[in-house]
Design a protein that fits this description.
12 strands; Rossmann fold; 7-stranded parallel sheet; binds (2R)-2,3-dihydroxypropanoic acid; alpha/beta
Length: about 325
């Protein structure tokens, strides 16, 4: 009997292949770039499982192209905004993702961006590379402190605003409260009765968070509700010294409004691991601004995280095709 066919939309860590190759026939999209739409539609034909990446739109057309034997879509990501969940539900196709295992890696990148923007690490380095470092500059490359100002009579802690207090938001808050003693405020859809890791944090409205925070870090999933949730009005509420960090999805920010705010110095700076579109065109105005640090969506880019993501994605495929509940289902 033929083994069930699994389409894998890109080369991912070997861990996944080792789990899947004995039981399934694997059709792996070659090369380092995502399949084109035509390649994806052709690639999934006859598959029982699709192991997708966040750059692959999985919708009715893909399911039709795959055929009625398709039973599981397993995203190699914690986010799943690339998958039409309603359509999958309607067709009875199980959907899985890779939660938890990239929490620490992504939180580390959020903190790295926060430091890089606050202390102007990238623009200072660019100046060194461009031969603009003439002397030790008492007034050059001045950035922001992360710690409280203990020279004042009343010590004022820096305030961190976490928009979306899920796993990654909490991990960022723990790092910055533990390391720099930051006061933490957050938004979340539901009140959190307790927060992990002894975090001391207060739930506030989005407007209060934006108005009062020194550092703002976005951790909401992308949905119709969160698309452009940070636009001109929200940027206008922020302190002129605020630093905005986004490791969630680019579309959560109205990028045009952000360019304007950064150009006008409405906020101090932005650190983005995600943008809209990805990859960003090399002539994009965000790339001309020295108060913006933009990374190529590397939040989960550590071997520990990527291997664990590969394992979880493969376990979801395995369980889905064997008609067992997925170990990591999308809720
Ligand atoms: C995810 O898993 O959703 C991340 O954005 C990938 O790094």
């Amino acid at each position: 009997m033929n083994k069930p066919l699994v389409y894998i939309a890109r080369k991912i860590p070997e861990t996944a292949f080792r789990i899947l190759e004995s039981e399934f026939e694997l059709r792996i999209h070659p090369g380092d770039l995502p399949p084109s739409r035509a390649e994806l539609l052709a690639g999934v034909r006859g598959c029982s499982g699709i192991l997708s990446l966040l750059s692959d739109r999985i919708d009715a057309e893909v399911c039709d192209a795959a055929g009625s034997q398709l039973v599981v879509v397993s995203n190699f990501a914690v986010g799943f905004n690339n998958i039409d969940l309603e359509e999958m539900k309607r067709r009875g196709i199980a959907v899985g993702n890779t939660p938890d295992v990239l929490t620490d890696a992504t939180a580390d990148i959020a903190v790295a961006l926060l430091l890089a923007v606050s202390r102007r690490v990238v623009s200072a380095r660019d100046d060194v590379l461009q031969g603009k470092w003439r002397t030790w500059e008492p007034l050059g490359w001045i950035g922001l402190d992360l710690a409280s100002d203990s020279t004042q009579a009343v010590t004022k802690r820096k305030r961190l605003g976490i928009v979306g207090m899920g796993r990654i938001g909490a991990a960022v808050a723990q790092r910055l409260q533990g390391g720099w003693g930051m006061e933490v405020v957050y938004t979340s859809r539901r009140p959190r009765s307790s927060l992990d890791g002894g975090l001391d944090a207060q739930r506030v409205t989005l407007d209060e968070l934006l108005t009062t925070s020194d550092f703002i870090s976005l951790h909401v999933p992308l949905s119709a509700e969160t698309k452009h949730m940070i636009g001109e009005r929200e940027l206008g509420l922020m302190k002129s010294s605020a630093v905005l960090i986004n490791t969630a999805r680019g579309e959560v920010i109205d990028q045009q409004a952000l360019v304007t705010a950064l150009k006008q110095g409405r906020i101090f700076g932005a650190g983005l691991d995600v943008c809209d579109p990805e990859p960003i065109p090399s002539e994009h105005p965000l790339l001309q601004l020295d108060n913006c640090v933009l990374l190529p969506h590397v939040g989960s880019a550590t071997w520990q995280a990527r291997n664990a993501m590969a394992e979880r994605a493969a376990r979801n495929i395995e369980a889905g095709i064997q008609r067992r509940p997925l170990p990591f289902p999308v809720q």
